[in-house]
Amino acid sequence: MGSGPPLFSRRTLMVQGAALLALLPGCSRAAESAQSMSSRWSPEVAELIGKIPYERIEVPGSEALTRWEALRLSRQDVWPVVVGGDDDLGRMAEQLLELDDRPVEAILAAGAGLEHPKSLWDLRAREKADWADYLKAHPELGPEGEEYVAELGDWPAVPPDETAFTVANDILSGQPYPQAHILLLPTTRSWDVPAYLKWGGWNACPPAEIHVAAMRRWATNYGAEIVGISGDVMNIKVQRRPTDRDEAIALAREQYAYCSDIVDQGVGGIAALAAGLMTSDWWYFWWD
């Protein structure tokens, strides 16, 4: 923590003009002109998007997952990742080009030197200590702080509803975006994706190298693949599920430390999260 209070919720930045999503639905990636760019984004955002150093494919949101699956089979030289709609692409460009000035190679090297979940526990311990120091300097704020400890709760009779692929859908309406964007990243490893996007490092969302370490371990243990990353959401598809309750609960506690909102503002308890991990091939993370 710095000298100021924690950042405000990034989720509040997501509610923007819906009209932006309805313009120029048939725009081709290859023929996209400066005029069409400026009609969908502000000049500043359009300039940032134009500087994204990766190949970009634009598809209707309703076709994004199908196109991702086809790209995974046909392109062995890149990793495709769905980054959401027009607003999400603008935020992704800002994160990539303005908010983290480290080279991608430095983030990859940092992630390679971390052991998950130890690096995650260490991060949360440092955050807790920093928050305690901040409260000492500002006693008027009271004793509240994030502990990243959740109640186990009862094992549900019925697993929670599956939250599958969401990044190509509007958060308010639940409907697919008119346009969704897929970036083709120059790697063949899913866990490199957060480094190439320089994704994370705001609010309780871990920095990119922590994501790299976590995704590498989960790819090894569960065949986890990053399918989509938008402004504050990550959609992951797994090839293997936890095989028993003990394993599922241990994984759920790990995921809670990684992303507490999936319990605190989601399923409500560790056992409920664990039950979902045993019945679904999709993992959903959201940082408020």
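(the above was protein one; protein two follows)
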Amino acid sequence: MIERVMVFIDGANLFHGCREYEPGYRINYNKLVDELVGDRKL
């Protein structure tokens, strides 16, 4: 059976968290989603 997954990203929270971690940090959302999904179906 195929596993399915949905990804919801709280963009504001992620942005501000990354900004506190390292100013100017850029997020590659495609890579992030690929890592979260893995071999499951999006």
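Reviewer note on protein two: Residues 11-21 form the longest helix (11 residues).
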